[in-house]
Amino acid sequence: MRITCVLGSPRPKGNSTVLAGGFCGEATRLGAVVERFTLNTLRFRGCQGCESCKTRLDRCALDDGLTPALESVRGADLVVLASPIYYGDVSSQLKAFIDRTYSFVVPDYRTNPKPHRFATSKELVFILTQSNPDERMCADVFPRYGVFFGVMGFERRHLVRACGVHELGAVEQRTELLNAACATAGQICRAVDPDRAMTC
Q: What CA dihedral angle connects 10, 41, 153 and 160, to 10 degrees?
């Protein structure tokens, strides 16, 4: 299994990054190959709304630091998106990445029975962390983005969510959160290769 992991936190050791590391570490142990991209270290622009990916190209017209990440997604079986919640949404870094994934859908995606450009469907893991301990707060983020990623061919979507974590290292003090990330990796890998995947 090939996994592309996109880290949206501006903090190198942020809680969403730690959870993503737990997931990817377990997936690697179970035989997956993981390619990671830390968005905050890349130089890139947001979607320009130029529609070139719908009129003359089959990919984003921009060629910048985000191009390798988008190409990695094309070849991945599973994509991990990890982000803290800032002002009720994903980080600005991850939002810019998500906007650029508009290039993955075909021009007539609204009516086409196969609206995406991928050869086969993919799997998505969304890892979200937030300071607010109330799980009702920002509960709309995953299903809202899930609608768009469903159009893009991510038929199976999973959520790993941590509420009430703010300080650096907070996730590491919550073993149930790391276990949830690990268990999700095991569940997915078990579906791909039942003989190799074992519970963590």
A: -30
